[in-house]
Amino acid sequence: MVFRRGKPNPMKIKLQWDRKIPESYKVLNPYNIPVHDQKGKNSCTSHAFALMMEYKLSEMFNERTLIDVDDLWEKQKKFGTAREEDGDFMEGPFIIAEKYGVKFSTDDGKTGIYFLGGKIEFTSGEWG
User: What is the pTM of this model?
Assistant: First the structure.
């Protein structure tokens, strides 16, 4: 997987809407995944990525599975994709999850590290 850091190419797109945009949307949340609060940190990429992974892993394990967002953010800073002052670029958490994995825990006690690509290292419990 190749990621490039830099300025995006600007594109001018004229959008035309045939209908009115709804004022609200209902997002299904069958596993009752909580909303994470980044508390003023520049860790928005960690939080967005974690939510996406929580939905994916919850579906995979068929139970609510949460990501350790603070651990992910610390890895992003430690391994050089992020800085406390600036935050990170969108690919940062993907790079970290591929190389170093993200910590997870399930409601029934499974814990481990999930790597993009599907590798799982369990620290307690087992999938299957």
Answer: 0.79
